[in-house]
Amino acid sequence: MKIEMLPREKVFRDPVHNYIPVRERVILDLINSPEMQRLRRIKQLGVANTVFQGAEHTRFTHSLGVYNIAREICDNFQQDYPTKTPGDGLWDDSERLVTLCAALLHDIGHGAYSHTFEHIFHTDHEAITRQILTDPSTTVNAILRGVSPEFPAQVASVIDHSYPNPQVVQMISSQIDADRMDYLLRDAYHTGTNYGLFDLTRILRVMRPYAGGIAFNPSGMHAVEDYIVSRFQMYQQIYFHPVSRGMEVVLTGILQRAKELYEDGKFTEDEKPRLLLPFFEGKFDLADYLALDDGVMTTYFHYWMKSTDHVLADMSARFLDRRPLKSAQFNHSTAHLLPAMAKIVDEAGFDSRYYTAKNSSYDLPYDQYDPTSATPKTQIEIMERDNTLEELSTLSPLVKAITGKVTGDERFYFPKVMLTSPDSPDFKPEYGKFQRYLAAGSVIDPAIYGK
Amino acid sequence: MKIEMLPREKVFRDPVHNYIPVRERVILDLINSPEMQRLRRIKQLGVANTVFQGAEHTRFTHSLGVYNIAREICDNFQQDYPTKTPGDGLWDDSERLVTLCAALLHDIGHGAYSHTFEHIFHTDHEAITRQILTDPSTTVNAILRGVSPEFPAQVASVIDHSYPNPQVVQMISSQIDADRMDYLLRDAYHTGTNYGLFDLTRILRVMRPYAGGIAFNPSGMHAVEDYIVSRFQMYQQIYFHPVSRGMEVVLTGILQRAKELYEDGKFTEDEKPRLLLPFFEGKFDLADYLALDDGVMTTYFHYWMKSTDHVLADMSARFLDRRPLKSAQFNHSTAHLLPAMAKIVDEAGFDSRYYTAKNSSYDLPYDQYDPTSATPKTQIEIMERDNTLEELSTLSPLVKAITGKVTGDERFYFPKVMLTSPDSPDFKPEYGKFQRYLAAGSVIDPAIYGK
Amino acid sequence: MKIEMLPREKVFRDPVHNYIPVRERVILDLINSPEMQRLRRIKQLGVANTVFQGAEHTRFTHSLGVYNIAREICDNFQQDYPTKTPGDGLWDDSERLVTLCAALLHDIGHGAYSHTFEHIFHTDHEAITRQILTDPSTTVNAILRGVSPEFPAQVASVIDHSYPNPQVVQMISSQIDADRMDYLLRDAYHTGTNYGLFDLTRILRVMRPYAGGIAFNPSGMHAVEDYIVSRFQMYQQIYFHPVSRGMEVVLTGILQRAKELYEDGKFTEDEKPRLLLPFFEGKFDLADYLALDDGVMTTYFHYWMKSTDHVLADMSARFLDRRPLKSAQFNHSTAHLLPAMAKIVDEAGFDSRYYTAKNSSYDLPYDQYDPTSATPKTQIEIMERDNTLEELSTLSPLVKAITGKVTGDERFYFPKVMLTSPDSPDFKPEYGKFQRYLAAGSVIDPAIYGK
Amino acid sequence: MKIEMLPREKVFRDPVHNYIPVRERVILDLINSPEMQRLRRIKQLGVANTVFQGAEHTRFTHSLGVYNIAREICDNFQQDYPTKTPGDGLWDDSERLVTLCAALLHDIGHGAYSHTFEHIFHTDHEAITRQILTDPSTTVNAILRGVSPEFPAQVASVIDHSYPNPQVVQMISSQIDADRMDYLLRDAYHTGTNYGLFDLTRILRVMRPYAGGIAFNPSGMHAVEDYIVSRFQMYQQIYFHPVSRGMEVVLTGILQRAKELYEDGKFTEDEKPRLLLPFFEGKFDLADYLALDDGVMTTYFHYWMKSTDHVLADMSARFLDRRPLKSAQFNHSTAHLLPAMAKIVDEAGFDSRYYTAKNSSYDLPYDQYDPTSATPKTQIEIMERDNTLEELSTLSPLVKAITGKVTGDERFYFPKVMLTSPDSPDFKPEYGKFQRYLAAGSVIDPAIYGK
Questions:
Q1: pLDDT of A449 above 80
Q2: CB–CB of A11 and D205 under 8 A?
Q3: d(Cα A18, Cα A147) in Å, to the nearest integer?
Q4: Is the CB of D222 less than 8 angstroms away from the CB of B195?
Q5: 3-state SS of B320-383?
Q6: Which of A32, B444, D264, D432 is the most buried (most CB within 10 A)?
Q7: Which residues of D340-369 are buried (b: 16+ CB within 10 A; e: fewer)?
Q8: Is B18 close to C205, i.e. CB distance below 8 A?
Q9: B contact test, residue of D226, D241, D403 with most B CBs within 10 A
Q10: Which of B114, B118, B156, B116 is nearest to B135 (CA)?
């Protein structure tokens, strides 16, 4: 493996990490690759800027941030815990480069509005990440191959967790990894909230490698606790915000409708989304995928705003003009009412296939390792002075309170006009009928509450 | 004039101002208008994010910020300096709404990469701003008309400086106005630099209305001084950065080339930029203009990357992949060398009409009022306790140092490959010839310096 | 009641609140009173600066901060919830002044290193606060009397919770009051930690008066939750820090020993602490108390460093030179071992009456109202849109996790030399004997663990 | 020279630098020495907290901050510019320890309210610094001697500029040194102003050693410029504030009067300031000096508040209760009026020897090297790529504007009561007479302006 250093360190100015230094030429070349630059055109938080207006940052700056945190961890490990003999559980700095590359590239396969897009077009950003790394057609692959023929697959294996050294894997992907630490701080910075703040410097100082992966010195227990609490609060406050989800529902409606129109051969020439056609047709290649970004999507929404298909035109305008669907919470005991509500929405003139939706947002903020779980988590370990490990939630009552508990909610989405007040001149009887199913922001059974 | 207040104040979370409150329904409706929402898709600093990666914020958040500063000034004026008798030079709160609307809408006519776009397509964002405000086809106009039939024109007159009350005009547009104060703070926040920081709270506290406009209490002199110095430094450090300008030169090349290809009838069907055609044809209407945003531009660059025209394809890829042209400073004594340099660039295989450019960035950071100037500035006045006015630069040696002095530079742009080292296997003789014209980042005369 | 306004608002620059404005002359006069200025000489966090070096701020700046938060709450209440008819549960702005005065003066009776001092000399800062407010000898009393003859007692009654309006009382003293909100933010700022940060602006925006006191709008639930978690973390991380407590133990030893020497008539003339004598004699008046501050205490420690009494001299030097006692955690099952440990400390040459101590730090971070409790807490209420109240912990799993749970620990303190390593040339057998009682920072039973 | 490293890095939490790491045992021992701990009891900005209330930080935290900046510079130099051959002008890391010690100890000789105290008692904090380092009686000396017998003198020579390597000297003392960089940032943090902010990280990155000392890479020119401007603004805004100086005048009056009373044998037993007597007697030793701190001074002011000497009692109370003298600006053309003004102050019942004073505050924010100057400055050099040096002011118009220009003012101080309004019941004819000499905050000649 040959690692060329830059003649002079290069720095990127970053609002979260201040300066991000780069010393290896491979890293600089990767940053300058078309596949990475493309991430400048994909917002990190999708539609969340429609609620938290400052959230306009992209996956590009996040990716550099993750690289930077991983770099600091490697630097610290090499300074404080360098390996002496193979298998001693300390840090082997020959794994630095694969770590940094994986950190930088971990999101390279993300597309515009990934979650929604994948749902409709059955793409898979994880598979595409692997492809970008390993397919000889990409610049990223060429750069990685320059290190060694096996290097692209090695980097990919870190990202998909199959890399043998758990220290490297956990640095990139675990319950407290460079990815999450960067996005919490960055999303907090750009949304202007302070829920996501925690003491990154301290956490980095107390991380330490051991044979089983990464553990934390006891003096940093509270900083780790604070990180978990911050993460919990960011999900509650930012990532699960009902209004962003109302925008995502609109987006789903647009793509769903467009796909159907295409399949029915109803797109006019003027509506044809040239760069999306491979996806409508279900036969896209990597180059097609890499041509997509947020701007491509909204450009075609401009086209579709003028469609003769009313649903497509209206939904596209709603997205561009930021008019989210409204919502009410429901649960297992009220879910059976949703078909009746959707029917009223139909009666009011909105095709409920597009204008109503169920949307759930759930997260497991922290969990202990559970071998019986579908996706067992690598729990957070505090390493005591005698080198015994204690799982975080046994030490922190705050963390214990949220350990293993799924949080989130389920919401039913519908057009805002359904909430028109009976006092309004635009009121329709269907709206009144619909409103009988709602109280205090939740779906209720009108038969029981007799409104 | 009827002003409807919201039943409950609405707040927007903002990273710069924390919370931005809205109390008037007109303001909320304007924020929600399609013309304003469109600004979410136009970056405030154009291509500057390619240098300062955090600079991904849009004209939308800036516009709300300007509104918010103007709102605070109005609130302060009404609390501390309410008019008692007409013409007493104090604040008349009946001008609050026109002020707030002008603040919010002052950038509404901006387009994607405005500066470059206007240069090629001869659009004029100031004229379009007026049109958006006054043309009955827009939602903004409908909302403003709801206040009174004359209101749209009044708001427009604040923005074009013809409104009678200089207090209102200066709040939106002067050497220390809500617009500049917001963008300095916001650009500093997102670039992660602190050059743009100054004490906004203090400046707002010491502003005061008088018959001639807005003056400042002496206790705030140093805060105002600090603002001027910050502004100077932001121009030097951020706005004039040679690399951003190298991206703008690429952009100019793309649009120029595309326009020529269109005019020569050489666009294939696949290359046709549907939403840009009205501009190529020189006959666009307001709706055409309002359909443009950053994403529309880059979408067509994706199309053009695959053009059979090599210049268009290459320049488009340079833009998307962030490969700016490089530059060297020149001045009046070296400007005559540029044609020779351009010729060498041609010889090296790059059409110098697109691959070379002169680019100047100049700014006048602060000036006194000069009636003989082409654009006389409203100077900054400190109002002493005896109500006499003193112009800022007479009190501040720092401000005096930069008053009336144009700062900036002129640069000559060319492809980076021209700088290839003679040691490189890819070196060509033309590169060597070209490099004889360069020393220490500036253009020199090889005949004199004899390299 | 006559309230004179200042001709021009006066502002105090503050690192936490930026600008603190004062409009009422009474407030300005109180700030300028000798009793308030004295608080500039008393550190807010006592000895905590010996651990968190930036914690050098005083009770003076905190007091202005509490005033400022109370002022903002009053301003918000008056703007959004002004009373219309007596008894409507809304805000009556005629209570503004009593609120502001109580906020400003709530800590006026605090002395130097209050906690320890009170313990030894049986002073009571709450009683002294009342006395400073109501005794005609003080400047504070004269200023308050200028408002009305009853005003001093009214302000005092807010501070001791007997004031009739619960809105006023809760603003100054409750589980989420101006006092705590200021000290969490201020202590976080000066210690340089971010545990204490929460969204003050948001909390102030969602506070609202009701007949039973103060409640919070549901949109601020998460901000309130975040405040409770911050408070919990500050206690864990800052206020309970074992090293600060080790300095407090030293302080207790000094004062205890000095008192005994005085009572035994063993103070030489050179050691006599003129300003402390009234306290040694147990007959001090208010003027004596007001002459005490941090500097007075340490000045006499300088005297005592040269005492012929070895304990007094040594302990005084330990305090001035920052040499805290060390500690180990103990609990109910190991408490019985402490006498044996103290005995070994005696054998090693340290009088265990001064050189050992038990120290507990406990806090109840949040609790629901419990009428059977000794000190029932005013619980935090979220007011739903239908005006029903819900107690915070029923809505927040994080808060529920810490509700009603006392947190803290008990520690046994002893001289650091007892931990000398057996490898050291200065090792003594007593140290070894002592160390058998310790493992991993806790007291253990050597009979059981057989070390 | 033997340098023992700590088994594990120790960190100090600091609000300005976040974490300050210590790796050498010598540094930790010095921090823990009584002479350093004493600096915890001496405020960095003396009386400035009476104007900027947050400015309660001490010389101790500043000293650690200077150490930390010097440490970062050494780390950077060793990484980027390690010497290869003696005399190559690069960094020789064997000078790290002497640099760090000098940085940490540079202020060790400062006393309480140094400036005023030195003026009255003819102490010299620079001489005392040298003594603390080199006198065998101190703990600091013992620790330094532990490194090598010559080490104490070496550290002292860095502080007094006689150390041979200019890199080391300039790091601690030059126009842009660790000392100034820390105090600007720290004073800005604690006063809550942002004038003192500059980009420390960037400046540290562009510093580089050369044979003549320390230079800066051109890419950091603007950061250095920003530092100079910040420094200029902090002097104008904070350090020269007229009200702080009014407190210093009070302090001078107290000490002057007390000294005279002592010399006249008029101190009663109750007034005797035991720890100050050696200074009154003019024969103090190092131990006497080290027993002084802010608290000792104010303790004796408590004593003196009750003096039968009215001047001493009144001035002491003014200091403790924060009642500064007021002031007016004067200049060379009005200086001749001051005796007449002082005479009126005498007539009004205030002994003008104590109750009036002239006070000048001057600073030279930046200057070029001038061999003819009394104290030639080491100018700031930008090292171009070809290794030529350019002096900062030739590159920066902002710096040029303030280069070589002394800024500041001269003020005449007097009791506030002299400004009593003629409308007041407490008005006296002397006040009116006095006020004829004042206009708009300046001294004027009533004979000319004829008020």
A1: no
A2: yes
A3: 29
A4: yes
A5: HCCCCCEEEEECCCCHHHHHHHHHHHHHCCCCHHHHCEEEEEEECCECCCCCCCCCCCCCCEEE
A6: B444
A7: ebbebbeebebbbebbbbebebebbbbbbe
A8: no
A9: D226
A10: B156
Q: For chain D, what percent of residues have pLDDT higher than 90? A: 83
Contacting subunits of D (3+ beta carbon pairs below 8 A) = A, B, C
Q: Which of A414, A431, A365 is nearest to A242 (CA)?
A: A414
Determine the topology of domain D325-365+404-451 in CATH. Answer: Growth Hormone; Chain: A; (1.20.1250)
Torsion angle (degrees, nearest 10) of CA C127, C129, C134, C137: 110
> Hey, what are C369's tokens?
């109202």
Q: Which fold has domain D5-240+370-402?
A: Hypothetical protein af1432 (1.10.3210)
| CATH among 3.40.309.10, 1.10.3210.10, 3.40.50.300, 3.40.50.1970 for A5-238 | 1.10.3210.10
Q: Which two tokens stand for residue D360?
A: 């000048």
Note whether D219 contacts A: Cβ–Cβ < 8 A.
no
ipTM for the complex?
0.94
| pLDDT value of position B451 | 53
**pLDDT for the residue numbered C346:** 97
CATH of domain C242-324: 1.20.1250.30
Which CATH entry fits the domain spanning D243-324: 3.20.20.70, 1.20.1250.30, 3.40.190.10, 2.60.40.10?
1.20.1250.30
Cβ of A401 within 8 Å of Cβ of C397? The answer is yes
pTM over 0.90: yes
What pLDDT digit, counting tens, does each position of B408-436 carry? 889 999 999 999 999 999 999 999 999 99
Residue with tokens 């700088």: B419
Query: What fold is seen in the domain A241-324?
Result: Growth Hormone; Chain: A; (1.20.1250)
Task: Say which range, A147-161, A277-291, B239-253, D1-15, has the weakest mean pLDDT.
Answer: D1-15
Q: What number of residues does chain D have?
A: 451
* Beta strands in A280-356, from DSSP E residues, in sequence order: 326-330
User: Are C56 and D57 in contact (CB < 8 Å)?
Assistant: yes
Specify burial of residue D122 (Cβ count, 10 A radius: 0-12, 13-18, 19+): exposed
Q: Which of B78, B315, B74, B281 minimizes the C-alpha distance to B171?
A: B74
Find, among B160, B57, B46, B172, the residue nearest to B111 by Cα: B46
For residue B60, give the nearest of A14, A53, A189 by CB distance: A53
Residues in chain C, total? 451
Counting as low any pLDDT under 50, the low residues of chain C are none
pLDDT digits (tens, 9 = 90+) for B122-137: 999 999 999 999 999 9
Residue ranges per domain, chain A? 5-238, 241-324
**pLDDT bucket at D400, cuts 50 / 70 / 90:** confident
CB pairs under 8 A between C and D: 123
Chains A & D: contacts with CB separation below 8 Å: 10
User: For residue D450, what are its two tokens?
Assistant: 């004829």
Q: Which residue has the tokens 């006392």?
A: C406
Closest CA in chain A for residue D9: A80
Give the pLDDT of residue C117.
Answer: 93
Given D291, D297, D321, which is nearest C34 (Cβ)? D321
CB contact under 8 A, A199 and C222: no
The CATH class that applies to domain B5-240 reads mainly alpha
* Torsion angle defined by CA atoms of residues C116, C119, C123 and C128, in that order, rounded to the nearest 10 degrees: 60
CB contact under 8 A, C61 and D40: no
A145-A147-A148 Cα angle (round to 5): 65
DSSP letters of B91-118? Answer: B-GGGHHHHHHHHHHTTTT--TTHHHHH
CB contact C222 to B (< 8 Å): no
Instruction: Flag if D294 and C295 touch (Cβ within 8 Å).
Output: yes
The shortest C-alpha distance from A140 to chain B (Å) reads 13
Chain A, nearest residue to B323 by Cα? A32
